[in-house]
Amino acid sequence: MKMDRSCNAQRFFWRALVLFLSLPAHQALSSKSARALNNTVSAFIVFGDSTVDPGNNNNLRTMFKSDFLPYGRDFANRVPTGRFTNGRLATDYIVSYIGIKDYVPAYLEPSLSFEDMKSGVSFASAGSGYDPMTPTLSNVVSLPQQLEYFKEYKKRLMSTMGNQSTIQHINKAVFLVSAGTNDFVVNYFTIPIRQRSFTIATYQQFLLQHVKDLIKGLWEEGARRIAVAGLPPMGCLPIMISLNSNSAVLQRGCMDQYSSVARDYNALLQTELASMQSSLANQGSRIYYADIYKPISDMILRFPSYGFDEALSGCCGTGLLEAAFLCNPNSYVCPDASKYVFWDSIHPTEKAYYLIFQLLRPIVNALIQD
């Protein structure tokens, strides 16, 4: 009987959530509205890979770029900013919800003003990862280098605001780290080098040590409110299905052997973050795990409930292999990206990012409340 009530409650929750999330993504909260929870967050600062890169790769010599149409097709003024989707990222919705501004800019954007930099930037670089080899394969900005850019960012603030004001500013900022997928999809599962030295289990521990090193580095620089995103269901990424399935065109389906690796890694990450939070709690830390696996998995498994028509192929091109330069102005693009979970063969659509943001709101609220 108790189980029946629990199941009914779950079904009610998901139905109510789906009804709420069925609003068009452009109706998301604007920074012009009241601040969420009347918070006093000073800035929103982001590290990671293409899931949170708003255009840092635009001026790099790398194939991991998206500063051309059809990327950005549904962004403001149809501008391809370098975001790997048709519109906004989850981080854009988060910063708007907090009430700071509408979009998270790229730190390497040449025209970035001081005020826009001060209120938060993304240091993320598409193709990056925790494994030092991963960004080297793509010639993109590594996470240690992103941390160095953050130190540079602090110095720029100090030169205008002074030391004490900058310290307080950083203490009141919210930090998000989103990386790890490329370490498996681009690196471990694709190139045999790491497989010679690591089992899946030891490679997961290797990555987690780099996660801890990054958080420690952020902590030493004054970060106190940090969320770290886990991995998505990697076996459901269109590119993983296309490259690894025996019948990738006729009979597409998620490949659980890859998604199970993500689940195991996420469980380990959750434990490590909880341990770090416990050891630093008396010093004012808020270190949280941000679960993106469950939201994306649910969107894929129950895609009609979210208003999607397609869950395992991307909107751009065939939707099977296209990403970065393979999704270009000459590619066929579906008429309505909001009907797709994925924009290209790796990255979610703007609508999917909006749904992810909504499902992460409890974590965001925990980070921003005073």
Keywords:
two-stranded parallel sheet; alpha/beta; four-stranded parallel beta sheet; Rossmann fold; 14 helices; 370 residues
Structure characterization notes:
With 370 residues, this protein is α/β, with parallel strands linked by helices. The protein has a single domain, classed as SGNH hydrolase (Rossmann fold), CATH 3.40.50.1110. The chain is 44% helix and 8% strand. The chain contains 14 helices and six strands. The strands form two sheets. It has a four-stranded parallel β-sheet with strand order 1-2-3-4, with helices on both faces. Helix 2 crosses helix 13 (350-359) and helix 9 runs parallel beside helix 11. The longest helix is centred in the last third of the chain and has 25 residues, at 256-280.
Put the structure in a nutshell.
The protein is of the alpha/beta class and 370 residues long. It is built from 14 helices and six strands. Keywords: Signal.
Element layout with pairings:
Blueprint: H1 2-21, E1 44-48, H2 90-98, H3 114-118, H4 133-138, H5 143-161, H6 163-171, E2 174-178, H7 181-188, H8 193-197, H9 200-220, E3 225-229, H10 238-244, H11 256-280, E4 286-290, H12 293-301, E5 310-314, E6 340-342, H13 350-359, H14 361-368
Parallel strand pairs: 1-2, 2-3, 3-4, 5-6
Keywords: Signal
InterPro entries: GDSL, GDSL_lipolytic_enzyme, SGNH_hydro_sf, SGNH_plant_lipase-like
GO molecular function: hydrolase activity, acting on ester bonds
